[in-house]
Design brief:
This protein is α+β, with helices and mostly antiparallel strands and about 210 residues long. The chain has 3 helices and 7 strands. It has 2 domains: about 30 residues; about 140 residues, OmpA-like domain (60s Ribosomal Protein L30, Chain: A, 2-Layer Sandwich).
Length: about 210
Amino acid sequence: MIHKQRLALALFFLSLTTGLTFVSQAGAVTPLPAGVTKICSIAFDKDEKRPARIEDGALSCLNEVTLSLKKNPTLKVVIVASADPAKDHAEKDHGDMREQEDASGADLRFEDISMYRAINAKDYLVRWNHAAPAKVIPTTDEHTHSQEAIFYLVPGDADFTHNYLGTTKTNEKVCTVKPCYDPREEYLTPQPRGRILNSRNSSHASR
């Protein structure tokens, strides 16, 4: 444990001096793969009743992601969303008695929260910012406990089964990233929200 803590601290200081960004995978801190760049991140810490709803403060990051895609038409974006057992109240067992999806987003199973965060973020980019659906890959990171979704710019050959980050693919309805998942697998439907009005209060997490 001490060794891992020292390694994480050393990589943190290395990131400060070199400008490299690091990602956590399976409990280990590793540098981002070649060709992968972190764009920005958005938080999901304001609306406890709808923990996967895209918040107003996400606007500037979502716009930055859209601009990155426009500037780099041959690249793609991978969304990596996470959930926090404590802050997202895993102990409350929301949704356990429900057989259908909850379109309101107010009765989500804890294990589905990070997936909804990923596909809701993609839905906003596609619906309101007109991003090409095939260019945005929603995924989750079960090894990180946080209330955020991070956006990465990745090489253009990334797909549903190989996203360069090793994160867990999210089955979205309708499938827009090839190769599509087996239709017998479980999938989730985005919970759309209205367009976020531009305001001075819109901000995103620092890089």
